[in-house]
Amino acid sequence: MRRYLRIVVLCLACGFCSLLYAFSQLAVSLEEGAGDGGGKPQAAVASWLAGGGRSTLRGAGPVAHPGGSDRCKDFSLCYWNPYWMLPSDVCGMNCFWEASFRYNLKIQPVEKIHLAVVACGERLEETMTMLKSAIIFSIRPLQFHIFAEDQLHHSFKGRLDSWSFLQTFNYTLYPITFPSENAAEWKKLFKPCASQRLFLPLILKEVDSLLYVDTDILFLRPVDDIWSFLKKFNSTQIAAMAPEHEEPRIGWYNRFARHPYYGKTGVNSGVMLMNMTRMRRKYFKNDMTTVRLQWGDILMPLLKKYKLNITWGDQDLLNIMFSHNPESLFVFPCQWNYRPDHCIYGSNCQEAEEDGIFILHGNRGVYHDDKQPAFRAVYEALRNCSFEDDNIRSLLKPLELELQKTVHTYCGKIYKIFIKQLAKSVRDRYARSPKEK
Ligand SMILES: *[C@@H]1O[C@H](CO)[C@@H](O)[C@H](O)[C@H]1NC(C)=O
Ligand SMILES: *[C@@H]1O[C@H](CO)[C@@H](O)[C@H](O)[C@H]1NC(C)=O
Ligand SMILES: *[C@@H]1O[C@H](CO)[C@@H](O)[C@H](O)[C@H]1NC(C)=O
Ligand SMILES: *[C@@H]1O[C@H](CO)[C@@H](O)[C@H](O)[C@H]1NC(C)=O
Ligand SMILES: *[C@@H]1O[C@H](CO)[C@@H](O)[C@H](O)[C@H]1NC(C)=O
Fold this sequence. Notes:
A hairpin with an 8-residue loop joins strand 8 (283-284) and strand 9 (293-294). The radius of gyration is 27 Å and the shape is globular. The longest helix has 34 residues, at 2-35. It is α/β, with parallel strands linked by helices. The chain contains 19 helices and eleven strands. Strands 3-2-1-4-7-6-10 form a seven-stranded mixed β-sheet, with helices on both faces. The chain has a two-stranded antiparallel sheet with strand order 5-11. Strands 8-9 form a two-stranded antiparallel sheet. It has helices at residues 2-35, 40-50, 75-80, 92-105, 124-137, 150-161, 183-187, 200-203, 223-227, 253-256, 276-281, 295-306, 314-324, 350-355, 373-384, 389-393, 396-404, 410-413, 416-432; strands at residues 113-119, 142-148, 169-174, 209-213, 217-219, 239-243, 267-275, 283-284, 293-294, 329-331, 359-361. One 2-acetamido-2-deoxy-beta-D-glucopyranose binds next to helix 12. It is found in: Membrane. GO terms for molecular function: UDP-D-xylose:beta-D-glucoside alpha-1,3-D-xylosyltransferase activity. Belongs to the glycosyltransferase 8 family. It catalyses: 3-O-(beta-D-glucosyl)-L-seryl-[EGF-like domain protein] + UDP-alpha-D-xylose = 3-O-[alpha-D-xylosyl-(1->3)-beta-D-glucosyl]-L-seryl-[EGF-like domain protein] + UDP + H(+).
């Protein structure tokens, strides 16, 4: 018994000594830090404080600390090895000390989410509401790429600059541009300016990945969540879209199209996630030549061949393209691009019935007329809402009352799916940052 006691005492003594050593190491490292002007711990604290300690951990994954930390090679090393077993250039105590900051630091240089929209004509208010919904719920910083007719630039700038206090987004305005040879032809395809989106991979050469959305989109959950599909792409996938229809009996492409289209019912391009690095690299199979063509070279021949047969402009061209290259498309479920078609004659988007609508797409102008009051109610609630927490939380109750007035329509009958995810997003947002914002 005595012997065991002695061993225990010995162990405790050893433990105590190593603790002392550890603290001395810590002290030394702090001095060193002060000595060489901006050592790691202080720098870490400083930049952490500068970052407002804003936690954007969710979904961010491990991102390399930009300065790199030569002493703390690997986070897991610190946790799983006592410091005396670490390689000589790795100091366990420093790891331990810095680790608490690194949780915040690591996610500091977060990858931004790039969001693009093309706005022409009377779409200013609608576009601003879309951008607002993106800002309200998103976690990571957003970079907006706004393509707009020249006369809209001034208004966009004014409105966006008045939100700059939020510091969670940045934006760039671009003019509408088409390849000079055929500018006129591209412009009149479908709606003016819509085909701009086809050229985004060629215009935004520096951008790796991009979420393109129509102006009539509303985000009912963080943009981060749809962005995370990029990581789920297999090696051949370059873009992601939702099906155009769930129900082939009312599908458009399968009944009327006079050109090839993707899958059973085609895809809708109103919400399109792109890994543009891959789009720029890929050589596409096509039905015009036997050689494969790159994105930049395929668009014009495609338009020439099909221009008399296409109805929905650039979306049809995308369908033709992916019908020949189906392995390149990632298809996400309908609740990420929920349109009147999903409920107008009865509900047919099963995923939305289960989990709610994630991204609402009020195409056919339903935010601005009385045909689908459920869509309009959500739009107006977000349009009226400001960025204050209380204001955002109090948007739900009146919206629900408004939606209850729409139960005479098929979409209104299932109005609960319009607020299911929205209510959760509001709760999550509040839980994330009770004080700031
Ligand atoms: C915002 O974007 C502009 C270019 O549009 C860029 O010069 C600037 O550095 C960006 N700011 C931040 C904080 O990312
Ligand atoms: C266009 O539609 C017509 C009539 O359906 C069809 O005969 C023709 O082959 C189509 N053109 C192309 C390029 O698919
Ligand atoms: C896009 O694809 C490129 C090339 O495969 C890859 O390096 C990059 O990480 C991808 N981007 C995203 C956001 O997954
Ligand atoms: C990627 O997924 C698509 C769609 O499921 C599939 O057609 C393609 O074969 C897959 N590619 C690889 C390399 O597994
Ligand atoms: C939004 O504001 C307008 C006027 O500013 C008002 O008429 C409308 O009822 C409001 N809608 C909602 C859903 O709060």
